[in-house]
Amino acid sequence: MSLPTFDVSSTAEQVADTFASDIAGKNVLVTGTSQNGIGFETARVIAKYANLVIITGYSLERLQKSAEALRKEGGKAEIRPLVLDLASLAAVRKAAAEVNAYSEPLHVLIHNAADTNATYRITEDDIEGQMAIDHLGPFLLTKLLYPKLLASTSSSWLPRIVIVASGAQGAGPGIDWTMLRKPHPGSPQESSVFARYHEAKSANVLFALALAKRCEGKLRAYSLHPGIIFSNIFTKEAMLPALKAMGDIKEDGSQNPDASHPWKTIPEGAATTLVAAFDHRLNDKSGAYLMDCADASETAGGPHNRSAFNSDIANADKLWTLSEEIVGEEFKI
């Protein structure tokens, strides 16, 4: 059977419907599933066909609202909420222990959550907030759930890890390794939300690359740029001056249709995640960086393609080693 070609305007539901037979019976964990976000949409369309969808969030109240809304959709999957605060290594360990106690295997792990506080903060583990939530928390969670993911392997399935990054991965020079844990006082990473965001999203891309290299033949890993979606980050008071200066939003805070980049809807923004999670045409492209539902790993050809820094396996290996040191656990494959 010939499969459709997905592109910038494809929706998550179109992708899910195409791979309904691949999603059937699968157990999937999606982080960051607040309503009106691409994580929620990702969970919603997967739940149409899957066996189990585990949704996470740090706020129990918002998580319960998401679970209730997903159940009302009437999908086939059981919706199982899991409180997970990626800013706390202790909370990550607690949540991972809960998942590992589930009787079901885990087929797909989707790292969708991101820090949307738009403010500089240091966590209880002495880690800068964006890097904690966007990379170091997910790194530890992956390490702890790795055996459970491997348990889902069959003759027709290799487990997948999907990491939602951003085109911002290519918007700077890469990661300053001396500041992976937290920025130096007075550095641009301390004073600029966007400078640190670039580093956190670079870490996402490099983590997928490292996973693909180290887990070759055991699982598949992908990172992606979902596109630019008018989500709740665009309403954060701390972000408004910078977003107005860039022309993303108008003076009244509304979305600027004349911004220098195209906007995607939430269903379009979640589409590439679904491709990364289930499209078997990517089986031989583990480690790839995706955009608009296609491989965008080449370092030339567009502003959102994977940067040279984030295509370098030496950088991926360095990130892995430093991440192990910061979380205090060795991630052996």
TrEMBL record:
GO terms for MF: oxidoreductase activity
Keywords: Oxidoreductase
Leader sequence residues: none
InterPro entries: NAD(P)-bd_dom_sf (IPR036291), SDR_fam (IPR002347)
A Pfam match: adh_short
Family membership: Belongs to the short-chain dehydrogenases/reductases (SDR) family.
Protein name per Swiss-Prot or TrEMBL: Short-chain dehydrogenase/reductase family protein
Organism: Mycena indigotica
Lineage: Eukaryota, Fungi, Dikarya, Basidiomycota, Agaricomycotina
